[in-house]
Amino acid sequence: MSKTLTVGSTFTGVGGADLGFEWAGFDIAWQCELDKWKRSVLSAHWPDVPCYDDITTMPDPPPVDVMVGGFPCQDLSVAGQRKGFTGERSVLAFEFLRIAEAIKPRWLVLENVPGLLSSNKGLDFQRLLSEVAACGYGVGYRCLDARYFGVPQRRRRIFIVARRAEANINPRVASGLALRALCESGSGDTTSCVPPWQDTTRTIGGSVVAYRKSARVSKPGTPETWVEDGRANTLNSFDVGDVRTTHAVVKDCVARRFSPTEHEALMGWPRNWTAPEGIKAPDSRRYAACGDGIVANVAYWIAQRINMIESEQT
What residues are labeled active site? Predict the structure, then answer.
C-alpha cells in the first residue's frame, strides 16, 4: 500500500489549496495563516490540524512531503505599486524558502499573480527561481488559467513547482519531474493551455452566466460597461484578482452583484466554505477570502500529477 503524502500549508487563507490536495488524497499536516478570522475558518474545517499564526516567527514545523503556499501578491500585482521584493508583503516568499530549507520537503508548490513575471523587469522572478534552486530543488513553472479546470472564471496564476534533488535524482532530473507536474509534454512552455479534460473532473453547476467589465469606473457617476464574456467566463477583464465589483446575469435577469456563495463556486469551493457554522462571516471578509484564495480545482490537478509521479518513483 502506498504511503499517504502529507502537506504543510503556508499563507493558507481559508484553505483553497489544502482542499484541492485533500481531494487528491493528501493529508494536511499543518497550516500557517496570519489573519485571525481566516484561522477561525480553517479551525472549523480542520479542527485537528495545528495552525501557526506567523510565518516569520513559526518554529521549524514537522517534516512533510509537500509544502504549498500562495504568498502575498500585493507588491507584484499590476494593480498595485509594484514594489516587488523591496516591499513588505511579497518578500515573505523567502520565509517560505527558509522553512523549506529547514525541513526539506520533496515538493514545493508556490502560487502568485502573473505580475510576478514582470516585477522589477523580471529580476524578482529570476531571483525567486534562483533561491528555490539554491535550496536544492529542480524547478518548473507555468501560467495556469482556472477556466480550464472546471470553474467559470478566467483566473490566470503563476504556479511554481519544485522537486528536491536527492542521491538518486540529480538537479536536472528533479527539474524534469517538476515540469511533468505542470506540463503534460514536459516542454516547459509557460503559456496557459488546456490540460487533459480527463484529469479535471471536478466541475460546478448552476445557472450563473458571468459577465465582464470592459470599462473601469473612474469617478462617481461614471457608468460601468458590462459585456458577455462568451466561452471565457470571467470576473472582470483586468485579471488581477480584483473582485471588488463583480456582477452576473442569472436566467436573463438584470445584472447584479455575485453573492459570496457564487464567489465560492467560482473558486471551486463548497457552498458556504467561507461561512462555516458558528463563525461570524461578514460578506466583505468572504469576498476578500475568495479574491486572494487558490482555486481548489487547480490545486487538485497539480496534486494528482505529484501523486502520479510519486507512485512511479516507488
Answer: 73
